[in-house]
Amino acid sequence: MHFWDHSFSSPEANLAFDEAVLESMEGHTEGELLRVWQMPERCVVIGRSSKVSQEVDQEACAQDGVAILRRMSGGASIVAGPGCWMFSLLLSLELRPECRALDGAHRTVMTRMRNAVQGASQELGSDSQVQIQGICDLTIGGRKVSGNALRLKRNWMMYHGTLIIDMPLEWISRYLLEPPKQPEYREKRSHRDFVESLGKSLADRAKFIEVLSEQSRAQWQADREWSEHPFSGSHLESVQSWIDRRYGDAAWHFQR
Asked: What pLDDT score does 117 carry?
């Protein structure tokens, strides 16, 4: 697997890259990739089938200049920005046939990501126990610290997610409405009572992010350079193309 620690300069480009690389891989037999990154500014990212009016406080977003963007994968809306560690995982369904079924995909990815977060936490002296709850959430003490989503194509899958390190939690309550669909373990808790940041248990948050990236690479054996990836030479042109046709177009983001 290839590894790339790279954040694009705009939220639109970060979202566009995930779709661009996924769409480019049909016809390739190798090219699995782990990218770790961060959003450059706060934004709301809604799921592919989400209805903006049901999940987002549009007035608050407008007042604060917070962009509302739609991603290619399913799931509910999130707030992302500085203080979130993000990952994008491109997996071959030919190499990992168990991921063709949704439960197999979630189990394959989330087990490894849980192990990476747990390992990084322990290495920095935290005794917090990380669990998988709901379909694909990571929790500590029953409170959500990570949400994840996926998109399946014929032979490839993009699985991406976010881990809250020290993003202001009040952003979530301000910009998101209570979700229409909730996991059973949430027990109808408000955003503030349901979501937690990992940073409270970390003495050195920058070091944690560094170690977490290392742990994630180890879990996936992602030891190949990005420059060797079949998409590396054309990614800038392709990302811009996806921005022009989709991620820079308000009609895409507000279609529902």
From this structure: 96
